[in-house]
Records
---
Amino acid sequence: MNRTDAFVERAAKQAESPAENHAAPQQPEAAIGVALPHESAALHVSGEATYTDDIAELQGTLHAALGLSRHAHARIVSMDLDAVKKAPGVIAVLTAEDIPGENNCGPVLHDDPILAVNEVLYLGQPVFAVIAESHELARRAAALAKSDDVIRYEPLNAILTPADAKAAKQFVLPPLHLKRGDPDAKIAAAPNRIRGTFEVGGQEQFYLEGQVAYAVPKEMDGMLVYSSTQHPSEMQQVVAHMLDWPAHNVVCECRRMGGGFGGKESQSALFACVASLAAKLLRRPVKLRADRDDDFMITGKRHDAIYEYEAGFDDNGRILGARVEIALRAGYSADLSGAVATRAVCHFDNAYYLSDVDIVALCCKTNTQSNTAFRGFGGPQGALVMEVMLDSIARQLNHDPLDVRLANYYGIAERDTTPYGQRVEDNIIAALTDDLLDSSDYRARRAAIAEFNAKSPVLKRGLAFSPVKFGISFNVPFLNQAGALVHVYKDGSVLVNHGGTEMGQGLNTKVAQVVANEFGLPLSRVRVSATDTSKIANTSATAASTGSDLNGKAAEAAARTIRARLAELVAKQLGGNAGDVRFANGEVTVNGGAMPFDQLVGAAYLARVQLWSDGFYATPKVHWDAKTLTGHPFYYFAYGAAVSEVVIDTLTGEWKLLRADVLHDAGQSINPAIDLGQVEGGFIQGMGWLTTEELWWSRDGRLMTHAPSTYKIPAVNDTPAAFHVRLYQNPNAEPTVFRSKAVGEPPLLLPFSVFLAIRDAIAAAVPSAQHAPMLRAPATPEAILDALDALHAQSASEPASAQGTSKEATTSDTNA
Ligand code: MTE
Ligand code: LUZ
Ligand code: MOS
């Protein structure tokens, strides 16, 4: 037995003894509901897993690197690429003029040039591509883009921040506006009001495997593109379009990504296109792998946002009317910003009923990277400001923020319709909250922390609870479709292909479990192959957390078709009804008789029964009116909640997460080990967004935080010593695959509780302050110290003055 097998065996043994809180599977014979290890776990830890850059290179392979713009906004006056062409090892230098088809890789609008023409719109934009003998030589030559002799620019006025873009009315798409009721009148008539501004930073996806594509030319104008992408079908389309070819000339394949997190939903395209262009022109395989700094400089991130909000509320903190404007930094092009902004609008409510509400979302056009999908896809940006508002409301009323949250929860009957018109029919947030408050001992710890803070002058503790309600489905209804192909070979082994992509989230494991369960086979009999556009056509991105919902159902459908054919045959041979045939434990049983699965498959082959099938799934119920921003965009909601406790050092601004309790609704989990991993990972990743990860552009629009040395993602020592994560047992009200729920994105919103706990600790440091702390996100030590300073200033001088705090760096709540 080799090391890999030993690992798998050990992991499987561990999985057999169900850990605390793991669902007892409802169908005990099935591979469903069992905490099986990730299909590639052993390969991940041993380093054997093949990522795109690990694919054995064909003889003659060349390497590409990109020459990037040096200005945030400038006209290209002239280009003289001779020096680049003459650099050691350079085979060719390509510009936009070399593109035979359309010079565009935008997913929705055609505003994303692959290589810049005439004008550059952000600092870091690719202007030319160098193709060289080696990766290193290509990069050295591409670095000549920094020389004035190579590209001469005439700088133009650059707009760098969402605030400036908003002032200049520069948007990549028209503003979105959703209004229900009469919020102005409700706010005016309310006994209490808050009004304020808030800001949250962006976030780099920081997939451990960077953007990479390897293009291999094939006969008759064919191209095979290995791409690290969440969206192989779109890569196929944009490459074909760029080469002016029909789509059937191009195959895109992806076995796995080393993370995508939304960053490879649309923005893998530039890399796939440049590698393919070079491969086509030079008739040699070409690989383009961006190094980390280039990846940071070129690709878009989570949208940062600035907010203006206002709310009126009663004496219990229940919101009577609310208004918000969310100004998102879209960057230089539209990319997916329209759908991101729509999701922000549809998550402002988070878990709360808002009878009278006005929500505006702006996609601000700035001369920076084109921001894109990132886990949560605008949902976190929408819900965060609501949680900040509720925190401020509670502090103004001197209530525990928890109680204000409970007072605003969606309820039954009158209080169950979202601002966009969808009824919340599967609401379990109240019961889930009770469970978590109990297990986390929230009320008792609140009192203990007050006691601690009274005695501790420098270190202050904070505690916060926050809930999540997250809508599941692509908010563009037609994207909610998927296909799968299942092959049963003559020996009874099964190969599954589906349109989803594996990025570490465990999709292939779950789909394999579903198929194994249909045939009553152990998981070892089912293999999932690489995603390949020549197997499943016209797929959607693996995104919106829908991977297993969509592809699990499609694969289930394909397996059921084959199973029905087998059942018919075995019923003929053993007697009985096809409908009574059972597939379990590697056997097929009916009418008191049994036959091993493999034997039945062999017999079916000889009887000329088709042993492979396709399967298709389209999510029911979803519809959306993009004009009125109303409809039923989500098939269902996923819920969760967290309680976090932090300690801050009021002299240095340092902080630590001491304990986090998380309860998350993954429906009836197909694989509790994988789902717990998603919840833990999402929590820590969201915590990074709100605390340590700070993107910072210089005055001339250069992103200065473009490597791990200056951009701090959480590490294992940032996870709390006490991290209690549980799955909430709650079969999906909708008939999803085994009544599971999507789990990829929603947990990213759970660490709102960390940010709010830091706010709580800051408030505890200045008990005499009238107002809530003005804490911006990310809550870096600098931001924490700024918030403390502002609070001290406020409590010292009434009325509150903004003195000593920079205007854009504060969150200000004022009594309206
Ligand atoms: N988990 C890992 N390990 N790596 C990833 O890149 N991406 C997240 C989430 N979890 C991601 C991840 C995002 S942004 C989404 S939309 C979902 O996984 C996509 O996969 P799913 O739909 O199969 O859950
Ligand atoms: N909608 C959505 C989308 O809700 N999530 C996504 O990831 C997405 N991607 C593209 C278009 N719409
Ligand atoms: Mo995820 S942001 O939908 O790729």
Note: Residues 310 and 530 are 50 Å apart (CA to CA).
---
Amino acid sequence: MDSVYEKDYGAFKDFLESQNAEFNYELIRKAYEFCVTMHKGQLRRSNEEYYIHPVCVAKIVAQLGLDSESVCAALLHDTVEDTDTTLEDIEKLFGDEVALIVDGVTKIGRLSFVSKEEQQAESIRKMLIAMGKDIRVIIIKLADRLHNMRTIDFMPQQKRRDKALETLEVYAPIAHRLGIRPIKEELEDISIACLDPIAYEEIEGLLNENFKDSSRMLDTVKDRITERLKEEMPDVKTEFQSRVKSINGIYRKMFIQGRAFEEIYDIYAVRIITDTVANCYNILGIMHDLFRPIPNRFKDYISTPKPNLYQSLHTTVIGREGVPFEIQIRTFEMHETAEYGIAAHWKYKVGVSGSDKGMEQQLAWIRQILDTQNDTGDASEIIRSIKVDLAQDDVFAVTPRGDVINLPVGATVVDFAFAIHSAVGIKMVGAKVDGRIVPINHVIKTGEIIEILTTNQAGHGPSRDWINIAVTNQAKSKIRSWFKKEKRSENIENGKIEIEREFKRNGIVFENEASLKEFLTDIAKRQHLENIDELYAAIGYGGVVLARILPSIKDNYNRISKQNKVIVTTPEITPHRRTKANDGVIVEGIDNCLIKFSKCCAPLPGDDIIGFITRGHGVSIHKCDCINVPKNIDDSPEPARWINAYWADNLPSTFMASLQITAIDRQGLILDISQTLINMRVALHSINAHPTKKGNSLTVITVSTEGVEHLKNIITRLEKIHGVYSVERLNK
Ligand code: MN
């Protein structure tokens, strides 16, 4: 090595020595020299010499507390891909452990995540396999990506966006899942700066504006807390820290959840770290005495750790200045896990034994995803499940007995029921949230107490639409397997109906039964199913989605019909023909069908509506802007099942609608509401009122109405009642 590198190595060694860890400097120096020699003459886009990059990656790896082999592998991570070095060279010089890690990092580097879903799924699968073999591979890859993101300014615009998106979708969630918080947050913040620079600057500006006030506030809080703790628990070791939420964290709350900067409670947080779990709860008690806690904002991640093993107590309190802030209380050990996640296993241990429990739990997650992949053959399903399982946030809800259930954001009561036990999910007939009955697609919020209502009636089971209402893999696959097992004959029947209908719609016609059978047997074989009944059953329970395989079926059919010169009869064109009305609704092209008004959006005459052909339960009618109606039907999984629908002229007289009334909690309010309805001759079916914070009340009523216009009149009248702030239609 010539002198400039010699000097650089000196600085690198100093850095390693400052890390409080023991390293094999002989091996590391050799790797350093090899890296500099092999990359000699190569430049990065920034015009820096290339070797600077692997050295920076190695520093990040050392900061995380990884071992000498990892530091060496980080130094060598680009040599096999970008220089003449072979894996055999690495193995000879640095041993098979280093070689194996370098091989893993090189292979992941070749995968592309900015691609079609199927390829992306395959890439993620390969990465998970590499992670399962040696988790150090992915930690080095994360460090590599972090340094590349730190220097992303030198990339061309389009590439910058691609990399940022890939980082946000794949790498940051993995860092999150492995619990490596600083890397996760930095990756996200740089990505947001690339993808939405204006919002990024806005948040940065807001934080700067508030900097003076907030640091003054945090200082005061620190003084009050340390003073009080010294008084109450003088012999207990505690440490005080404060932190500001990451820009991405604020970004999500402001631009995704639509909250104002001032409404975010946990922008500023203070952290108290102590020695034992018991003292964590003691300190919590003291904090709730010192500051006023905000109700329902207490989270106990000590008794229920997050899936990435994060543990801490969180509570939000209001300080003297009236500014809410979060207090996090945890032990020193929990703090290590919170900051370093899976990397913490190396940091304070010499070597990692196979019986390390936390490590096993982390790896179990990887295995589970790989297993699920073997069950479903469908790539888009795989990618979706990985994204859900890697989802950033979790919600926590509680059973009436006080058990905490941890679910991904967007989970519904269906997911909750199946998370308790599959028997609970199967027997579910409804759910109560905080004592009130909710629709089955109710999206769970943290802190809700959820009671699942079940029945013991024989033959009762889940409904098929639950597969679409559930978000977790666990619930979906349990519902599917129930249908697969319990309802075989019904599945066959439904699958058969679906095939017949779709064939007719697409003009797939056969001269005789035998050639149809032959054709169907061929489709079954392609789906790895034994016979036609199996095919019908699979379509019936949703294991095979007909809409997805239909294009290739059509191709096949066209080929065969050309060969046999069969005359293809075009199907009778029926669209846009209005036919007979059922229950006040006309469904395009279908004469006598069972109509069901969906509970999720409860459409009323006057609303724009659309129909969905359910499996065996007629057509369900939704509002066009219902959340369960895909924005772009042509791109949705089953476009053919959505069908135009209109309100007929001769409507039945009434429909049910629910209204939510926010008002001052005053005496006689309920009486005034019912009197107003009586005066309008509107039938009241249910009324449910409860007080909220700040002396207000929330009243939900269900009434009969003739349609949207009529409902508007009812709302206007109710709004005139003394003390009423707002009246809103529910099920939007
Ligand atoms: Mn690299």
Note: The first helix runs from residue 3 to 17.
